[in-house]
Amino acid sequence: TTHGALAAAVVLALATFLYFLYAAWLAPSATRRRLRGSGFGGPAPSFPLGNLPEIAASLAESNGTLPAGAGVTSDIHGAVFPYFARWRAAFDKVFVYWLGAEPFLYVADPEFLKSATAGAMGRLWGKPDVFRRDRMPMFGRGLVMAEGDDWARHRHIIAPAFSATNLNVRIRHDRR
């Protein structure tokens, strides 16, 4: 029975290792190849953390400051997300980055977004499970986390607040 228990432990350990190898390396590698074959470039991920080491290094290096010579600007994207600013310069407005073994599509091109979400295929797009799990406690069930018809209902409710008239009133009020 000792040999049987040892054999079962070895088989379990091997199965766990193979599952980890598949889930954290083989499956993401195949996904990355398919994405690159479809024209989606992006920074090369490292096993098993994806682009997290590069993100951490970029944040430590920038310390939340704008690059020298940036001057006064209302665009704080580069200061808050220096890695996105660097990747966008290198890979244009649409690219894939990795958080661990999970790919994320960065889209800063409205025309690409319109074409990708148009028609029946647009209904298949949604927020990844990891996003829903991690962000739900912070954002609740509002516009940021809503999808499909629920998103459309939320967007319809808040749209008047962002009309040109309301925004101009707000700008004039803030300048006083």
Automatic annotation (TrEMBL):
Main location group: membrane
GO annotation terms (biological process): lipid metabolic process
GO CC annotation terms, alphabetical: membrane
Matches recorded under Pfam families: p450
Coiled-coil intervals, chain numbering: none
A GO molecular-function annotation: monooxygenase activity
Annotated signal sequence range: none
Cellular localisation: Membrane
InterPro entries given in the database record: Cyt_P450, Cyt_P450_sf, Cytochrome_P450_Monooxygen
Top-level division of the source organism's lineage: Eukaryota
UniProt keywords, alphabetically: Heme, Iron, Membrane, Metal-binding, Monooxygenase, Oxidoreductase, Transmembrane, Transmembrane helix
Listed transmembrane segments: 6-27
Family to which the UniProt record says this protein belongs: Belongs to the cytochrome P450 family.
Name under which the protein is recorded: Cytochrome P450
Originating species: Aegilops tauschii subsp. strangulata
Source organism phylogeny: Eukaryota, Viridiplantae, Streptophyta, Embryophyta, Tracheophyta
